[in-house]
Amino acid sequence: MLHYLSLKDIDSLPNWVQEARSLKPNPKLYKDLGKDKTLGLLFFNNSLRTRLSTQKAAMNLGMDVIVMNFGSEGWALEYGDGTIMDQGSSEHVKEAALVISQYCDIIGIRAFASLTNKEEDESEIVLESFKKYATVPILNMESSVGHPLQALADAITLAENNTKSKPKIVLSWAPHPRALPHAVANSFVEMMQRQEADFVITHPKGYELSEKITGGCTIEYDQKKALEDADFVYVKNWSSYRDYGKVTNKDTNWTIDLKKLGQAKFMHCLPVRRNVIVADEVLDSAQSLVIEQANNRTYAAQIVLKKILESLS
Amino acid sequence: MLHYLSLKDIDSLPNWVQEARSLKPNPKLYKDLGKDKTLGLLFFNNSLRTRLSTQKAAMNLGMDVIVMNFGSEGWALEYGDGTIMDQGSSEHVKEAALVISQYCDIIGIRAFASLTNKEEDESEIVLESFKKYATVPILNMESSVGHPLQALADAITLAENNTKSKPKIVLSWAPHPRALPHAVANSFVEMMQRQEADFVITHPKGYELSEKITGGCTIEYDQKKALEDADFVYVKNWSSYRDYGKVTNKDTNWTIDLKKLGQAKFMHCLPVRRNVIVADEVLDSAQSLVIEQANNRTYAAQIVLKKILESLS
Amino acid sequence: MLHYLSLKDIDSLPNWVQEARSLKPNPKLYKDLGKDKTLGLLFFNNSLRTRLSTQKAAMNLGMDVIVMNFGSEGWALEYGDGTIMDQGSSEHVKEAALVISQYCDIIGIRAFASLTNKEEDESEIVLESFKKYATVPILNMESSVGHPLQALADAITLAENNTKSKPKIVLSWAPHPRALPHAVANSFVEMMQRQEADFVITHPKGYELSEKITGGCTIEYDQKKALEDADFVYVKNWSSYRDYGKVTNKDTNWTIDLKKLGQAKFMHCLPVRRNVIVADEVLDSAQSLVIEQANNRTYAAQIVLKKILESLS
């Protein structure tokens, strides 16, 4: 039984990317594979691309889909062991996960980092609790620490646009008015560590990501130097990891424009704040791959669901 | 590629009405037409009839349906050109529309008037932005200015109940405690301008609808005179258009009762506030067509979706 | 046309339980029965098990399902007769029920007790109004007074686990921080009155359920005595019925632990507050049937929907 919690669950990234790309000419080819199987999508947080593309992927595979906004439609969950549940939580994840496993053949979960409790976030408490107590495969639709469906879509997009044997790929921090999680950046870094590339991370001092994830990566604090001769620039804001969840820098000098981008292709997971993260001129240019990335979310979700379904039979 | 943004998108109202009526004996007849096609319904506002009837119509055509409450489940959208997005909006409609076009074959949108910014409302900023940036057909599920699915259902209902070559049809304003949009009234007027009828609009002074829409219509401020010998009375509240979005009149003398109605049939789009808009005795009488109107919402949506699907193949 | 509003709508509980159990080996066997039929699920309150298991049951029967959160997605409903609707409610249940009947072949409704207006709650105002005005069957997904899908799932679970001709079954109150409705307890009692069993209800003084429901049942205020030699212990909190909707007792001596449980099987409808209603050691033991009960929710819903569908043809 295959879970998809992080990129570590992919046995061969190149193979999965290749298989995902091969779905595109005929997305309904495996419509019998998911017949009479139910995918339950549990949203603890908002979602546009993940919500729609995962439903689309499941329908392409012939699955029935049940969507639930856990916060507003269900019960507040408890995760602690031995808790006396006389406060806000009405149901323990032990029961919820076991119960939902009886109604769904695969459970997708979106649960962002709190950005207030580093230890709890790093323990992936929601995702890991569901994995521990559910009896069916779990699909990570963005968790505290990672967004592996996005990273897989990014890998597909890179494969479709790359022409070099060792392209230069830069992950650049950019400013944002609110505190954002590290999940997308983390999973992109993990994906890059499985790719042949000249990979550089750039961000202001104090914005270092977890060393457990970036270990071995080149970090260049001078954005201009980092961007030199880049083939792909992946831009993303994240809040401080050291000063956990804080916004300590809103320096608009980090915003990406065409001059900074040079000849590189521009990537971002969306939603993106125009003229804060990146200038209009970039998003509206042919160098932007953001719409292709979003399209590849369907095929990333579909290849993952296909692998999971195959692991069940 | 056919959009359905307003009644202007109907090439022949009588033909569409006729075709919609012909769907009724066998609503599933065209179930293969929508096979493997996805309808995405984006709700920026609450909905009962539109939500259910549009889903039902799509399922009758064999489509897959994805429903999303954009406000609570997605990201706040930005519509301005060149905006520095460092405030509340997380995503620009340029990205949202392009991205959703990749997951859905048709996009339905419900986005009410703000009733605070007349210019923005009249520009149909949400609907027109999606039309501009999406690459798939857009379906208007009630916008700032119009509700053409309702008007088409009303045309079907009139056709089913009318026995005269030139019936007298009255659109009458009625009081309401809260400020309501002009969309339903506007689309009804537009529809009437495509029908053979003796059409009269009646409302208190100061409640004139946009002249761009009512141009050429008879306006009679004396409700009693307007209702004389009417065959159909369509009742609806709207807030002031001149004093934009304000409730300047709650005169219960405008409430419709059986005496005022005479022999006419009563129409309303629902939801209707009983004994404010109209007396119980009218709604509970055989002269009320409101339930038929709501039923015809399914066939209005179905003929529109059928026409759009045919325009795609 | 069969409604499922309470256990009274079951002609033979043993037969329904038997038929529900027979669905388990092949849940998709009757997938043609619901073909081209639409189930509309209207949620006025939160739900996890009911939401997912009823959708699952409907999909097992081949039905299309439309889910709507009435509170947040639709309009506030009015139930009074002759009301001048100039306050918060936008739509009368008379219109809503008739309209939805035109889009859905069966309407499921979840509407909890207010716990503030005993008379209104006891009149089952939401459920009975829909039954009165709708033209299609109504399915109770937990109402003010009852939760008959839960009770039917409980009957299935008892049948699967009972080995005696007349088991001792105890319904025990347990403490809870917030005021809860009486629906689950009521329906369990009603179900027990249709079963061969030595049935005892235990709760603190002042927590008597409605005599209209418990009439003829043994009530034992000493929990220890009540639990002696029990085969099944069904635990549930409810707020005071006499002092309507009030929490007048939070005595943790009523919490169930393994010592109190003895050799009995433990039952609860979920969600359950661990270490408030019941100790971890019970839920985590093999004596707990709560996960089986939740699983049987699918088959309870499926047999009810199957009976209703058969009543339509």
From TrEMBL, chains A, B, C:
N(2)-succinyl-L-ornithine binds at E142, H176, K236, R273. It holds the Pfam family OTCace_N. Its EC number is 2.1.3.11. Homotrimer. This is N-succinylornithine carbamoyltransferase. Belongs to the aspartate/ornithine carbamoyltransferase superfamily. SOTCase family. Residues 3-160 form the Aspartate/ornithine carbamoyltransferase carbamoyl-P binding domain. It comes from the Bacteria. Carbamoyl phosphate binds at S47, L48, R49, T50, W75, R110, H147, P148, L149, Q150, C269, L270, R297. Residues 184-305 form the Aspartate/ornithine carbamoyltransferase Asp/Orn-binding domain. Gene3D superfamilies: Aspartate/ornithine carbamoyltransferase. It catalyses: N(2)-succinyl-L-ornithine + carbamoyl phosphate = N(2)-succinyl-L-citrulline + phosphate + H(+). PANTHER family: ORNITHINE CARBAMOYLTRANSFERASE, MITOCHONDRIAL (PTHR45753), ORNITHINE TRANSCARBAMYLASE, MITOCHONDRIAL (PTHR45753:SF3). Keywords: Amino-acid biosynthesis, Arginine biosynthesis, Transferase. Catalyzes the transfer of the carbamoyl group from carbamoyl phosphate to the delta-amino group of N(2)-succinyl-L-ornithine to produce N(2)-succinyl-L-citrulline. Is essential for arginine biosynthesis. Pathway: Amino-acid biosynthesis; L-arginine biosynthesis.
